Amino acid sequence: MFDNLGWGELVVLLVLGLFVFGPDRLPGLAADAGRTLRKVRTYVKGMTDDLKSELGPELGDVDLASLHPRTFVQKHLFHDDEDDAPAPRRSAALAPGESAPWDPDTT
Fold it and tell me: In the chain, which ranges are continuous DSSP H helix?
């Protein structure tokens, strides 16, 4: 979410928060935000562990991050499957006087 947030933007947000909330309330709000973030992370970790345990041993080692829509699309649309693709079929040269192979089902 905040991947492209640089130091300049953080300083602007800090100064803006200082003006909006004041220097007395800002440290308390930052501490509350940190505690809330920690609780959310713990909750999500618990949900992930519960989901893996409910799926059973067959699907317990599934990487849930790989099921994220962006990762899924990138993997299946933009990934080159060179290893999975069959090797191109090479035709053998015909001997002199040999006719080309003919399959009556293809005509």
Answer: 7-55, 69-77
Question: What distance in Å separates the CA atoms of residue 13 and residue 5, rounded to the nearest whole number?
Answer: 11
Residue 40 lies in a domain: yes
Residue pair 18/31 in contact by the 8 Å Cβ criterion: no
Can you give the residue range of the structural domain that contains 70?
A: 29-79
Chain CA centroid to CA 61, Å: 16
Total domains, the chain: 1
Q: Six-digit token pair at 86?
A: 């069959």
Asked whether residue 36 is domain-assigned, the answer is yes
List pLDDT tens digits, range 39-85: 999 998 998 888 878 877 777 667 777 777 888 788 877 766 555 55
